[in-house]
Structure formats: structure tokens, C-alpha cells
Design goal:
The chain is mainly α and 430 residues long. The chain has 16 helices and twelve strands. The chain has a three-stranded antiparallel β-sheet. α2 (45-55) runs parallel beside α6, α11 (230-249) packs antiparallel against α12 and α14 packs parallel to α16 (419-427).
Length: 430
């Protein structure tokens, strides 16, 4: 078995520097990275968080600048936009992509900001940046907007009234067409005809939400798509604890108490609402008029480990019965977002939909490696990191990887694999 070495860290750093430089934008005081300059020529919220985490190991000042640019995008109503369009000249995008951006401009507000939200992993990234640099002046510049976007989720998106955050569109989970979200969309992976619905679900649902002005209460009443998603809620819990820690350095005692107590409250609600004792697993819940668990396993089912609040007995079951189970997640190529047995019987169209098929996403590897370390499972965290790093070294930086072969898929020179640099540095490879 190849062990990780300092040379692995050096090689990964060089490649991360190359790829992020390709996707860098630095103009008019704004600094950030596009996920990929050809295919995603915009500022994306949770992507910028991942870019900042990577940049903390390359250039911490640029990491802070990226997050400061991001927090300036918070909308007047308090939500952090999933995406903000940038001037086409800044993106270096090819003409077809610019034409596509023009064709869908109805999806954005007057300043080019999306109505969608993202899981607030950027708050955790801000905590990592502050721990790295200790820059209180920087913290105070982002503090008000950081609180505003968290408060929006807590106050405007608790649509089931249980303390958890609801999403109104699958893109708000960050996991697009995740199999866990298919039941709420009325899409069946085994159906021939549902491929058509899958092709148009995003645009049709976006237009539907726009027709109600993206008002959460109105969309709750309509109940077209209202989901207590695991990715959104687990990351929000982590973000609340991160904000509580940052509040101490911002001399905001009230915020520290509020965010700490809300994190604990949300974590308890997650345990009460999303845990299934029979399966030893967590699932999202959908249907605001009659809540139902979507009993489909994905790597999001493991994310309660990342909250820091998962009950000890349940954490043990999640790790031993699911995460480390060779027939589910602990496969040759780590870590599949969808366990192989959940994909049995799915139609071939599944493989063509993001997050639906046999895929490995590096952001989930990163979060689960952190979770394993915090659970005292250093050996498993080291092995997850080792296989992730070796896969990236072999294949390069891709949007995602095939969980059957480890091959890079879809878009090359995508930034997210840079998170493996943070995974490596947490383990201090020898």
C-alpha cells in the first residue's frame, strides 16, 4: 500500500495552484475563483468556500479575499445567492456559454444574483480562515453579512416548524439530482419515461418558484418541492457552531449564545426527525403537508457525522454499518456518493445526471474525512485521504470521479479536488 508522503503534498499543491490560477478572477476589488472558467463562469457560494479552504494552504490572503468578496454578495433579504453572474469579459467564457447565460438571465435578480441558496459551508471556511490568520479586522468586515445569511436560513426557511432548514429547489442542496431528492420530485430511477421529467425539472421548478416571488411561505403552501435536506441541514449545524466560535472574537456575546443554542437545537431535531432506527441511517424528509422520509441512502446520509453533534451510538452505527461497509461506501475507489446497491435497477439515464449515478465528489470526501478524525477514527480518515489523493494524482482535477473505476469525469480543471490538500495537511503525512 502506497503511503502518503511530503512529495504527495508538493505535487498536489503544484496542481492546485495551476488549476486555481486558470479559474481566478481579480478585478475592481473583487477576487474569487470560478469553479471552471469554461463551464461555470460565475461566482458560486459553496464553491467559493471550497476554493478558500484550498487557498489557505497556498495563499491565505487570497483565501480571505475570496470569502470577503463572497459575503458582499448577500442579498437585501439576507440570503446568500447560490450564484452571482459576473461580467462576461471577466469569465473568458466562450461565446456559446455567454449566449446561454443571456438566455437564462430571467433566473437572476437585477444585479445578476440567483434566488437560490447554498448550504452555508462558507461560514465554516471563514472559521478556518480566521484560525489560520487571526485577522480580526477581516472578521469584522464580513461579520454582519455572515450573520445575515445564517439568520435568513433560520428565520425564513424553517418551513416544517421543527427548527430544520427547508430547501425549495434541488440545486439548493448542492447535490442537484441526488437520488434522495427524486421522491420529492416524483421521479423514479427505474422508469423509462421519467428521464423526460428529469431533463426539465430544474427549469420548470425554477419558473414555478419565480412565479411566487420565491416567497418561502407561499411555496410551502403550494408544496411543490419542500425538503428538509441532509446536506443543507448538517452543513448549517456546522456553520452555526462556526459562527458561535467566531462571535467570541467579534465580541458579540449574544450571537455566540444564539448560534450555539440553535446548533444544538437543530442537531436534536435532526436526530428526532431524520434518523431511522431500523436502517441505522439518516434520511431527508419531504412534503410539508404530510412529512415523509425519503429512505434512499447516499453519502449525505453520513453527514450527521460532520455536525459534531451526532449521538455516539448512532455515529458508531453509521461508520461501522454503512461508511466502512464494502457493499455500500467503503469500496475500492472512495467514496461513492451513491452506494452500488442503491443504484441496482436504475435506468441508464441516471448516469448522465449529476450526483445520480456512480460518482465520487471530493467535497464529501473532505467533510467525511474531517468527521472521521473528529470521531477518533484516524486510521480510516488516513485511508480515505490516501485513496483520494492517489486518485487525484493519477487522474488530475475533475468535477467528479467514477466510483467504479476512479476515472475523472465530465469537466477537467475543476477546483474542488484542491480540498484534498486540506485533507492531507490535517494528517501531516509522513
Amino acid at each position: 500500500m502506497e503511503e502518503l508522503t511530503a512529495q504527495d503534498c508538493e505535487k498536489l499543491t503544484v496542481e492546485a495552484e495551476r488549476v486555481l490560477a486558470l479559474n481566478e478572477v481579480d478585478l475592481s476589488g473583487d477576487y474569487y475563483h470560478m469553479p471552471n472558467w469554461r463551464h461555470y463562469p460565475s461566482l458560486f457560494a459553496w464553491d467559493s468556500a471550497y476554493h478558500a479552504v484550498t487557498m489557505l494552504h497556498i495563499d491565505p490572503e487570497k483565501a480571505k479575499r475570496e470569502l470577503e468578496t463572497l459575503f458582499r454578495q448577500v442579498s437585501p433579504d439576507g440570503h446568500m445567492p447560490h450564484e452571482v453572474l459576473v461580467p462576461c469579459a471577466a469569465t473568458r467564457a466562450h461565446p456559446l456559454r455567454n449566449l446561454m447565460r443571456w438566455a437564462v438571465q430571467w433566473q437572476y435578480d437585477s444585479r445578476g444574483a440567483s434566488h437560490l441558496v447554498d448550504p452555508p459551508i462558507y461560514v465554516y471556511a471563514a472559521l478556518l480562515a480566521f484560525r489560520k490568520t487571526g485577522d480580526r479586522d477581516w472578521l469584522m468586515r464580513i461579520w454582519e453579512d455572515l450573520c445575515r445569511c445564517l439568520d435568513y436560513l433560520l428565520e425564513e426557511r424553517d418551513l416544517f416548524g421543527d427548527g430544520l432548514v427547508s430547501i425549495l429547489h434541488p440545486w439548493e442542496a448542492g447535490t442537484d439530482l441526488s437520488p434522495q431528492l427524486l421522491p420529492a420530485l416524483g421521479i423514479h430511477a427505474s422508469s423509462r419515461s421519467d428521464v423526460l421529467q428529469a431533463n426539465f425539472y430544474a427549469v420548470l421548478l425554477y419558473r414555478f418558484c419565480s412565479s411566487y416571488g420565491w416567497d418561502p411561505e407561499s411555496l410551502k403552501r403550494e408544496n411543490r418541492f419542500v425538503v428538509e435536506d441532509l446536506t443543507m441541514n448538517c452543513i448549517t449545524i456546522r456553520a452555526l457552531d462556526s459562527a458561535a466560535e467566531l462571535a467570541v472574537y467579534a465580541d458579540d456575546e449574544m450571537a455566540a449564545r444564539r448560534y450555539s443554542s440553535r446548533a444544538a437545537f437543530m442537531a436534536e431535531a435532526l436526530e428526532d426527525v431524520c434518523w431511522n432506527e431500523t436502517d441505522g441511517c439518516y434520511y431527508p424528509r419531504w412534503n410539508s403537508s404530510g412529512p415523509v422520509l425519503a429512505r434512499v441512502r447516499t453519502a449525505a446520509s453520513l453527514l450527521p457525522l460532520f455536525t459534531g453533534h451526532c449521538r455516539a451510538d448512532r455515529a458508531e452505527r453509521l461508520i461501522d454499518e454503512h461508511l466502512l461497509e464494502p457493499g455500500e461506501f467503503w469500496t475500492e475507489h472512495l467514496l461513492p456518493f451513491n452506494p452500488h446497491d442503491e443504484l441496482a435497477g436504475a435506468r441508464p439515464w441516471i448516469e448522465r445526471k449529476l450526483w445520480c449515478g456512480h460518482c465520487i465528489w471530493i467535497n464529501f470526501n473532505w467533510m467525511l474525512a474531517i468527521a472521521l478524525l473528529e470521531q477518533g477514527r484516524e486510521r480510516e480518515a488516513r485511508e480515505l485521504t490516501r485513496r483520494t489523493v492517489k486518485m487525484i494524482e493519477r487522474e488530475g482535477f475533475w468535477e467528479y470521479y467514477d466510483s467504479r473505476t476512479g476515472r475523472g469525469k465530465r469537466i477537467r480543471d475543476f477546483n474542488w479536488p484542491g480540498l484534498a490538500l486540506d485533507m492531507l495537511n490535517r494528517l501531516s503525512p509522513s
